[in-house]
Amino acid sequence: MAEYWGIKVEDIFNTMQERFRPEGAQGVTASYGYDIAGEGKWKVTVYNGTLAAVERVDGITGCVATMSADGETFVGVNTGKVDATNAFMGGKVKVEGDMGAFGKTGRMFRKFVIAKKEMSTREYIEDMFGTIVSRFKPEEAEDVDASFAYDLGGPDGGTWTVSVKDKKCTIATTIEGNPTVTLEFNDAKDYVDFILGKIDAQTLLAAGKGSAKGDINLIQTKWPVMFEKYKDPMGGAVPEQELLVLKKIISVNQKYATGPVMGRFLKGLKDKKIYGNRCPKCGRIQLPPREMCAECRVRVSEFVEVGPKGEVRYMDVVYYALPDPLTGVARETPYGSIMILLDGCKGNETLPHFIRKDQIEKIEMGWNEKKGTRVRPVWEEKRAGDIWDIKYFEIDE
Amino acid sequence: MSKRIAVCAVAQVKNEPEYAHMRFQNMLLECFEPIMEQTGVTFDMERGIRNIITCSDDVFDARTISDNGVTDVVGAHFRGEEKMAQESINGLGYAMACILSGHDDVILFMGHCKESQGESRRMATNLACDPFYCRPVGMDFQNVDALQAREYMEKSGVTEEHLAKIVVRSRKNAKKNPYARENRQVDEKEVMNSPMYADPLRELHVYPVTDWAYGILLCCEERVKEFTKKPVWLTGYGSCMDRYFIGDRDLCSNFSLKQAAQRAYARAGIKDPRKDVQLFELSDHAAYQLPMWAEGVGIADEGKGGKWIDDGGMEKFNVNLSGGHLNGNPLLLGGAARAIECYYQLSGQAGDRQVKGVKRAVAQAATGGAGQHQAVIVMEA
Lengths: 397, 381
Known about the structure:
The structure holds two protein chains of two kinds. Chain A has helices at 9-14, 16-19, 71-79, 84-89, 99-103, 105-108, 121-130, 132-135, 188-195, 201-206, 216-221, 223-226, 259-270, and strands spanning 3-4, 7-8, 30-37, 40-47, 50-57, 65-70, 94-97, 146-152, 158-165, 168-172, 181-185, 210-214, 274-278, 285-286, 292-293, 298-299, 302-306, 310-318, 335-342, 351-355, 374-379, 390-395. Chain A is of the alpha+beta class. Chain A folds into three domains: 3-108, SCP2 sterol-binding domain (Nonspecific Lipid-transfer Protein, Chain A), CATH 3.30.1050.10; 121-226, SCP2 sterol-binding domain (Nonspecific Lipid-transfer Protein, Chain A, 2-Layer Sandwich), CATH 3.30.1050; 259-395, no CATH class. In chain B, the strands form two sheets. Chain B has a nine-stranded mixed sheet. Chain B has a two-stranded antiparallel sheet with strand order 5-6. Chain B is globular. In chain B, helix 3 crosses helix 13 (334-346). In chain B, helix 2 links the parallel strand 2 (51-55) and strand 3 (80-84). The longest helix of chain B has 16 residues, at 24-39. Chain B is of the alpha/beta class. Chain B has helices at residues 24-39, 58-61, 89-100, 121-126, 141-156, 160-174, 188-193, 255-268, 273-276, 289-296, 305-310, 313-316, 334-346; strands spanning 5-12, 51-55, 80-84, 106-114, 196-198, 201-202, 211-220, 232-241, 279-281, 360-367, 373-380. Chain B has a domain at 5-119 and 209-226: Peroxisomal Thiolase, Chain A, domain 1 (3-Layer(aba) Sandwich), CATH 3.40.47. The chains are: A alpha+beta, B alpha/beta.
């Protein structure tokens, strides 16, 4: 099984029992399926608020919802390395079945905290020299022709030569010939502490625990420029803390009076008609109609039927959908957002809506000097008097 | 004498339980047009309205940046527009600042609130409380007001009978106010038997859900003749924000109102409000607040609210002849309603409720539970 950030997919499942939060599962009885590409399938069962079973299965049946993802995404989401919302919106995580029920699993388990073990001196030495070539910055090594020898004593020690020539860096585990500069440490552990910044070079040298020979100036001034600083994989080795997160949902139901102007527009949609209203002073059309012309500051009372066909003025293709605030469900992506100049309107009197999914590629934008693709509305069978009475626009052929 | 700011014109729709046939844009338009007609003001960038202040609330409107829903009907396109997202009375203070700074000569100030839109105003005011410590334990303005009411009534000798008297009087006064919400007239007994909301607050002790909108045109002293023959002057404004966390407050001290009143009085040169002011409009969201705010603005002795009512203080100082907030204004807009009533009285347009010889009036308003933030405006004929 592959590891991601040092974690296997099965580690996530094997720790579910200890990460289970009964307070997040109150009153829940359900099974959830997990289909992790190339890794296997699991079924997690919660019965009456307790975690009843976590099983590896051949096929997923009897689940209210099934999540599918690749191993890296799954481990990433569970460890906080990958943003769950982005993964979901970007299609890296898919959920089939009851989305709402699956959402509850987020509250049932504490986050998987990556356990950090201590690194030994030997592991540090291997990691420090093992990453030298990848930390080399060739653009900083112009005209450098030098070799840096390391002779580290003690049980974890060894010899290395780092050579830089022609903007290339190579490493060998021997010391040969006459290196440009040679660093000796009596104990490899001191070298590790020196690189990690726990002890400074002056102290080591003064204590007779190490020595430097050759072009010392070169290693002091050029090395830090040519190589990225070594990053401690332990990152200070403080165990990651689980932060308390308080989730709140704000919800106050509202009703909204439309008034005579907005009401007329919405009623029109029910009758498959699109109404704007025309300013008595400047003649511009506001679509949807509004009570007054914001530019002339006069009341607008003349309604005019526009469209229903028109041409596309602006368009974009949305890949990251926000959830529909009315339903909480994320739209399927990609979708095409368009601004349509309906027949009878001019200039910027455009109406925003969607374009039929399979026609996204065929739409051309227009502007005053260029005609955009002609489109027509596709009406809902049962219309309620809202903007969804138009399902979307499609090419008028 | 300090510079004065003129109120040139006001317009409003009637306070109603629900404007079912209008959205709030329609309500504002009903106020916008009369202001234009009364004053002949224009939107000329040199001589007209360059800046507009609106007052509305995101939660009550169920949309963020709620002013964006109304910029067209208040004429705000292509110029300054700033929203007062707090009690409307502070919009007057802000308008004064805009004009006194010399930045603007003329300010149009418009506000709206449809409390009828929301399922519950208590759910809306719950959101105003601290999300982690106060919302979960059921705090909303009504609940917090009741905490204050209990202590205040105990300390100031205000009884259930006093509250009933305030409610009956409010509805009676409101009958003379053509813009007031039309409420059923009640007697003391009915008030004292109305359902208990949060002890000691009963249903009839609390202002009813109301929809309303208004507009006010203000300008600098130098140009007042262009817009009106009968200006009313704003001569003092003061506000004070008390502690937000309810646990930090002495609910009964009137701390923030006393501070706000002192600041406004100092600016207007008022030494003794009992002698220097002839009319008071106080934002009594609930009946107990009328004597409490009367103590805060200095017309009732501290801790003597009950006796002040018995001694006829409400009539003596001409308090809430409009019916007050208690008869029904949207929570957010009580201050504008108070100031508009002062305008009518000071300009001699108060009809049946007109007090003769009013030279100076005070409007007060509160935001937050138990009068957390307080503001006071002094207006003069």
